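pls design
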């Protein structure tokens, strides 16, 4: 899908695309950190009908809600395209040595070759977690790699 980026001097940036119904949709990212979702009435790119306004925290929440299923779909597609690559889930137990420690402390990718691509914490999904992300008991790690790599991550985190 083609997304056009337009600089709005003094305001921020507007990203726009045409959806499957032929409607032009825009997301205005304001310099204040707020966002506005607009739909354009006609051919005039300045004549947008505001649909929704979100502060930065609300925008992050919507992005997580919309992004989490898409991330899972993309990983599933990737594992179909690359022979030997699979996805798996590893639970961090309350008694794990990594409960309360940063993800980077596991050295999981270095030791196993598998990548932790998301952390599911209750209803929240932390996509592309940084090494500084602190793991908690009950977290579910979404891991991409070989079967052996995923098993290795489980051994590290649960051992």
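designed seq:
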């Amino acid at each position: 899908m083609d997304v056009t980026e337009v600089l709005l001097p003094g305001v921020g940036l507007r990203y726009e695309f045409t959806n499957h119904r032929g409607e032009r949709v825009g997301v205005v990212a304001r310099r204040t950190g707020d966002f506005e979702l607009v739909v354009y009435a006609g051919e005039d790119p300045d004549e947008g009908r505001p649909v929704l306004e979100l502060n930065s925290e609300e925008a992050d929440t919507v992005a997580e809600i919309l992004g989490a299923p898409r991330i899972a779909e993309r990983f599933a597609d990737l594992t179909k395209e690359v022979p030997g690559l699979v996805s798996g889930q590893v639970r961090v137990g309350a008694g794990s040595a990594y409960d309360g420690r940063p993800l980077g402390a596991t050295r999981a990718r270095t030791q196993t070759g598998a990548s932790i691509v998301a952390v599911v914490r209750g209803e929240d999904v932390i996509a592309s977690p940084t090494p500084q992300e602190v793991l908690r008991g009950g977290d579910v790690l979404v891991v991409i790699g070989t079967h052996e790599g995923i098993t290795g991550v489980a051994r590290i985190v649960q051992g």
